[in-house]
Design a protein that fits this description.
The protein is α+β, with helices and mostly antiparallel strands. It has 10 helices and 8 strands. It has one domain: Alpha-Beta Complex (Replication Fork Single-Stranded DNA Binding Protein), CATH 3.90.198.
Length: 274
Amino acid sequence: MDLNEIRNRLNSIQTKNAPQGQRKNVFWRPEVGKQTIRVVPNTYNKANPFTEAFFYYGIGPKVMISPTNFGDKDPIAEFAKQLRQTNESDNWRLAKKLDAKMRVFAPVIVRGQESEGVKLWQFGKEMYMDFLNLADNEDVGDFTDVTTGRDITITTVGPEVTGTSYNKSSISPRVKETPLDTSADVVNEWLDNQPNPLEIFKRHSFDEMKEHLQNWLAPEDENEEGSIIDDEKEVASTPAPQQNYAIKTPAPKASKAEKFDSLFDEDKADGLPF
């Protein structure tokens, strides 16, 4: 029995079942000014410290994790694929709205807040590319190495500088190589107790997501629950459609529900649902 694996699983379950306010505590975001962090090795992926995950915003619950993150079928992704097969511009625009958005999670120790343990910093594609370019820099090396890695300085400017409604951060590695911590026990504690980003968000069944999609396509007056985190402005919620969409193809004479259900009937050919 692997005790570290048992501890990690226990930590994931406790985090997932924690009240919303407590779950927010596993996340960290930089404040305006300068802060220093250390990206730590990823317990759940030894080869890559970063976890890529795909989410839907504003379709049903404010944030909904895609089943494709777990290798499962995703009704929203399947519907978007069907839309693109029509070669109709309106359907392509709708498919783009339905595409899942990538978020990236990095396990970090915030210098000056080491007693709080490993936090998750989530960011989008632009910051992710900055980190990947940094990792590809031979002069920097493996900045996550617990012995010879490097702390990262984050410089964040506010809306008055960006000219937008949100902050913007940049990263720069420290020149000096330093250990993650001088205590091996502390390092092991941080490596053994990390929140798993894929275990934090509620997973919805295929049928639940299908229902959320159907309600979004044919909106009635309802607003769904909020997110467990206040996401950055660069990930805007998917705007609710102002009309009921349909794929622009010759439609069979069937009810709207039957047409929608036909998309997910595995026994049917790959025809269009409407």
